[in-house]
Every structure is written in structure tokens, then in C-alpha cells.
Amino acid sequence: MEKLAIEQLQKICTQMRRDVLRMVHAVQSGHPGAPLGCAEFFVGLYFDKLRHNPDFNMDGKGEDLFFLSNGHLSAGWYSVLARSGYFPIEELRTFRKINSRLQGHPATEEGLPGVRIASGSLGQGLSVAIGAAQAKKLNGDDSLVYVLMGDGELQEGQIWEAAMYGAHYKVDNLIATVDYNGQQIDGPTEKVMDLKNLKAKWEAFGWEVNEIKQGNDLQSVLDGLEKAKSMTGKGKPILNLLYTEMGYGVDFMVGTHKWHGSPPNDEQLADALSQLEETLGDY
Amino acid sequence: MSLDLKFTYTEKKDTRSGFGDGFLEVGRKNPNVVGLCADLIGSLKMGAFQKEFPDRFFQTGIAEANMIGLAAGMTIGGKIPFAGTFANFATGRVYDQIRQSVAYSEKNIKICASHAGLTLGEDGATHQILEDIGMMKMLPNMTVINPCDYNQTKAATIAIADHHGPVYLRFGRPSWPIFTPADQKFEIGKAWKMIDGKDVTIFATGHLVWEAVVAEAMLREEGIHAEVINIHTIKPLDQEAILESVAKTGCAVSAEEHQINGGLGDSIAQTLILHHPAPLEYVGVYDQFGESGTPTQLLEKYGLNAENIVKAAKRAIERK
């Protein structure tokens, strides 16, 4: 894949944010907040770092794999998948509608290219990614496995079962990322269930932690992801702590849990889109 | 006077050993087969595979939810994971993981569940799961298999490795008669008519197939000719075999080491009510938890033995 200039990548981020807002607005359901906050991550990964093939096959031998554990970020993921060539951009129109491949939460049943496992019920994706990473090692395949989790999702016990296992088996071809936005449905994570010192927690479990302090600055994200890649292959799984702001890019959505799972109305959509220039053409 | 049994045995063995020996065999045959176990390698008889293929075996520690997720991930890349633990922890504890990451995602995983049912024995009700068949058969895409003895369990273990899709394989702990042939061909979804009869059909699964064989001989002494059908695959259910038999006998008994709610009996009842209404009596656990005891004591106390199958058969015949 030809490397894109940062200006071009920035345009994709803006367009992805427009896609997300228009998709959840159209069906008046879905989760805009977190995908808006993860645009730089998704675009940096799919358009720069990931060695992948949009001619999708389930086994993905010889390619880097990405798993979305926090499946409610589906609108953002679908936008990036479509815009990197996995399926027609037009298909974003069908998000959450009857007879669509773009289910509310990602699924394999309808055969949407790019999706390798269902997610939505939280806490399961890290285990899946570790299993896929171990299968790569068994196959002598030196490509990498990525997984994105929410910070609220870390309240699920299975995450820590997987964390213990990943370090025990030295799964060092895995780069996990926590979307560290400090918000969840019922409020700020520190009020709902305080995560305390995540860096210390992951390190105590035997992981190498890479902090990406400016998760909504594209260059920082690209540098952070590159650094994470350089940390692989050294006997430890890698954990990116990606500091983002939920709802980033829209002034009235940023930094609050309010837009975790609520779509904008017509007026709010117009206001939000006016803050995000159409760069690559709306679907 | 000894019974004139249509099937006999010279040796007893646990069905979990049939699984362990079959697992080693598929490991030798197919390099994509991998094993996972949540700290019960000895109990599941997975040690021989682990010893011969250490790089293809993953001890997960006491973390069943993670084990199911790992197995799902390993299928991506073409592995065929056999994930083993006690039936209780292989189903109820990880139902959501199986539902989302395995069944809905159609992953080629074999969930290998030992120590199912009352015959787990002395450990008591915390470990004696009697709801697992129901939970697993309700999941779309899931195949549910409960073989009856060592030989059938071994044959089933080998067969599921070649079947693409999620499978729940249920087996047990107690030493049990080996009464089916060592060289049997195991066909998933194909019921096995073991004994021909005309008065009543006994549909049995798992350990209770042996009890059904004994019950058939007891009934025959009283002039009642029971047909015995071994339903090793509860899903997909061989409806054709069930309907063909009941069309002839006119009534049926289901026998299983499981709650009557949601088990094999309910699957047969559904088949009959939709296609050929006929009297059906259930031999199973009637909406209670088990308790500590020896397998024989428990099967007797909860009515899961040949004597109770005989009584149920007579009730079914009376209702014709």
C-alpha cells in the first residue's frame, strides 16, 4: 500500500467523523462518541500501519489482523473499512437497517468483509486476539495482531484473565490498545468504577505499556503506533494507552459521556457537520 | 436369573478416556488440531496429547472465559481447537462467550465437556451440571453430541475433528460398560437403532443408553418388545429415525442424564408434537439439583436407571 501524506490522512479522519454522525443520525441509534474519539487511531492504523489486504479472507495468513473488542464503535470501523476498500462506501447507508451486512454491532454471519468475529458483548476481544496471535506463531506467520478495547470495558473480568495469559505465553506479536477516554455509559469511569492506575496494572500483569498521550493528534498517533510496532518481538505483549476525548471533533459532543450512545437530532447533526468539512465526499 | 442382554460388555472404562484417546489420535492425524484446558488436564485425559504435542497445547489456568475466546481466535488461521474442562464450566460459566465468539461467529471449535451429569458423583450439585444440553442446543449453529461409552466417545472425538463448525461434546467421569464396537463409524446426526422392537421406543443418550439396553431385556422378559435408539447427536436431531420408529411403536420414552426441561426429551417431544403426536414419558431429572453420592446411588435416587425406564415404558404403553 502506498503511504499517504499526513494531510490526506487528516482528511480521511474528518470524513470518517462525518460518516459516523450521518450513520447514527440516519437510524437514530448507535454510538457516536467513542468512534469520533478514535478517528485518528482507526485511520492511522488502516491507512498507514496495518499490512492488510482489503480482498478479505477470514484466515488472514500473512496479513496483520485487527479485532474490535468494543463492538459499539462499529460505525467508525465500518467507515474506515469501506473507505479502505473492503466494501462499497455506499453500503454505509444500510448501517443498522434490516437486511444489512452492517449490523448494529459487528458480526460475521452476513459476511461483511473485514470482520472476523462478532463483538458487542464486552470483554471478549482480547482473548480472541491473543488466540489469533498464537495461531500466527504456530503458522510461522510473522505479521501482527491488533485489538482495540474501551477503558470501561476493562471492568470485565475476562480482560484480566487474558492479560495474565498473554504475558505468560509471551504473546509478543500482539498490540492491544485501550481507548482511554475516561467515559462510559453511566458517566466518567472514575465515578462508575474507578480504573485507578492502568499503566501500573498492565505492567504488573507483565505487559509493555506504550502511552500515546495525544490520541487525537494524528502525528502523535502515527508515532505511537510506530513505536508500538518497534516494541514487538521482545517477549512481551504490547499495550497502548491511547488518551482520547470522547466526541472529539464536535464542540458540543467532546469530553462527555452524554454522546456515548445517543444520536444527534437534525439540528445537532447540521451543527456538527458544519464543524467537519466534507473532504472525500459523503456516502 | 441373568438377563438376556442384546449388548454385553467385558470391560468398563470412563467415557472421558475415550475422549482422551480419540484426541491423541486426531492430533496425530491433523496438525491443525490444538488443545486447550483450564487446569483439568488430568481429569480430561488430555495429558497424552499435551506430552506428544507440547507446542500445540495451551494450559489456560483457571480461566474458562478466556479459554473460549482464545479458541475462537485460534480458528482464525486455520487451527481446530479442542477446548476442555468440566461440563459445568464449559457451558454455564461461559455461555455468553460461546454465544458471541463461537456460535454466532460460526467458529470451528470443539467444546469438550467432561464430568457431565449426576454421575460426576461425590463432588455434588455445584459440579453436576444437568442443564448443559439445553443451553447448547438452543444456540444456532451448534452441534450437540453425547456419546454412550468409551468406544463411541472415541469415535465421536475423531469424527468432530473433520466436521467444520462449533461442536459441544459431552462425556463423563464414571467407569461405564463398553458395549459398542471399537470399529464403529460415527455419523454426526444419524441415530443408531440398536435393538428392534414394536411396543415402545426408548430414545436414550449418554450413559443412559446402557440403562436402556438393560431395560429392553427386562421388558422382554415380560413380553414387551422395546426398540432402543441411541441418540448420540441431540442436535441436529435425526427426526426421520424418531418418526419412523414411533410410527411403528406408537409411544416412546426418553432417557438422559439431564433436566427434563430442555434436554433430549424435549427435542423428541417437539418432533412428535409437530409431526406425529404420541405418548412420551421422560426419564431425566425433574427440576432439581443433584447431591453427593456414588454414581449408582445417584442414578437410583433420581430415577435414571433401567428399572425406571421399564416403569416409564409401561406408562407410555398404557397411554397409547
TrEMBL record, chain A:
Keywords: Thiamine pyrophosphate. Transmembrane segments: none annotated. The keyword Iron does not apply. Its cofactor is thiamine diphosphate. Belongs to the transketolase family. InterPro entries: THDP-binding, Transketolase_N. It comes from Algoriphagus kandeliae. Residues 12-272 form the Transketolase N-terminal domain. The lineage of its organism: Bacteria, Pseudomonadati, Bacteroidota, Cytophagia, Cytophagales. Pfam families: Transketolase_N. The keyword Transferase does not apply. This is Transketolase.
Automatic annotation (TrEMBL), chain B:
The keyword Membrane does not apply. Its cofactor is thiamine diphosphate. It comes from the Bacteria. Signal peptide: none annotated. CDD domains: TPP_PYR_DXS_TK_like. The keyword Transport does not apply. Keywords: Thiamine pyrophosphate. Belongs to the transketolase family. This is Transketolase family protein. It comes from Algoriphagus kandeliae.
